[in-house]
Amino acid sequence: MTICATQYVADSKLQHAANVTAQWLDNDQDGVVDEPRLIVPLQGNHATLLMSSEGFSDQALDKLEPYFDHMVGQDLAANETNPQRQRDASQEEIHHLIVNAGWQYYLPAVFSDSKTQRSEIYKQWQLAEQQRLYKYDDPTCDDACKTIEFFYLGTAAYLGSKADLESDEMRVKTRKELQHMLPGLVKIFESKRYRYPLVKWPDGNYAFSNNIAYVGTKLR
Question: Are the C-beta atoms of 86 and 38 separated by less than 8 Å?
């Protein structure tokens, strides 16, 4: 995984994002990637987190667009990264990137967001909507987007991130409720075929920071 930042992103924000990334990949925090089979698709897709101070302008995104032909990217604003008294958006955006560039390519039958693939998480999203357990009203978010948003919020419920569940988008708020109302989603999380992050909600406190390579030159 590569994280790039503009010159206006503080080093502390960049480091926090790097630590959250490491925690999603090494969720049991033993210094080793939990699911090593993610490494090939993440590297092959050039998974890249793009950080700006307050979000990229439309003009900036237009300039970045050609690069998305060669990588799977995700943007993250520094002012939403580890803010005081607000939800930390880094967990969500980095989870999206790892799912989109890694899990979907490693096991598409389980993690794909494609309508034609109709993966296991896609079916769980449809089931949750049919049962009125999940609803995402953003008109710009298509079925693929809603699937990935649902999967993240399901993960938040399983690992106990209350800050991510304050809205009514996901009506299932705890692991116990997931087990009762969406047992199929819990089955995906707990499958023995792979190691999905089930130990700790990333908080930016990663014990093996020497595993993260830092290059001080920032994009302008």
Answer: no
